[in-house]
Amino acid sequence: MRISKFFLNGVASLALLGFTLTGCLDNLPVIHEAQSHSSNQSSQVLMPLAVGNSWTGIETVNTVDDYTQAILTSTSERSITITDTYQSNGELWFQSTSDFVHIGNASYINRKDGLHRLSSAATSTSQSKLDGEFPSSPGRLFFSEEYATLTLYSRPEPVKLNLVRETVATDETITVPAGTYTCYHYRIYATPANPADSQFADLYGVEHEYYAPGIGPVKLERIKSSGDIERSWELTDVKLN
After folding, report:
1. Which of 22, 32, 65, 112 is the most buried (most CB within 10 A)?
2. Where exactly are the structural domains of the chain?
């Protein structure tokens, strides 16, 4: 049985423009420093928010052929763009559109505890989720909610899974086509509500999200329980106003 959810309610991801070095430094990666911006455009936020900001990347999807069991790989360009703002309960929210089906259209806000995301299907801003705690520290579990109920042939009672978001690192170096960034690394995984059902947690797999503060998401990755990469997204270009 397979549960399909990618980068879970999570935002999405993207990063800043790379620099080109010349001479003998041509082949060295560039470590990007967060630029200084006002308001939501700051290294003090996980994802800079302003109308016109956009992040573009390449999504790679790996599927298994039902007949030959061969790995089929496809790639496509996916982007997220901040298109508008609105006020709710005295807060300024930023609306986004995305052709990335696993992220979809959503609204974002940077609060004191980090980046919050509100699905377009939500009916109230009180339903927003903490996508990335910022600042944070390695080992922090900052979000958990009931995610899915599985009905399996192997047992009569359903299995309930909780979705957990954890901070893995706050200074991990990640290289993508847009450059090399120092990132916050978040891990998203499922854990059974009943510890006796621990053998079913692997049905979800694990997702990893990498954000460069002051720039935004840089890389997203979903890994199946087998250890194979099911899909990934890597930043190729970012525009910040």
Report:
1. 32
2. 32-239
pLDDT tens digits, one per residue of 95-122: 999 987 667 789 999 999 999 999 888 8
pLDDT at residue 102, as a whole number: 66
Assign 231 a pLDDT band (cuts: 50, 70, 90).
Answer: very high
Domain 32-239 has CATH 1.10.287: no
* Separation in Å, CA 80 to CA 52, 96, 140, 165, 204: 10, 7, 27, 22, 25
User: What are the backbone angles phi and psi of residue 231, rounded to the nearest 5°?
Assistant: -160, 155
C-alpha pair distances (Å), 1 with each of 46, 112, 118, 222: 35, 39, 28, 16
Tell me the average pLDDT across 144-148.
76
Rounded CA separation 140/114 (Å) = 13
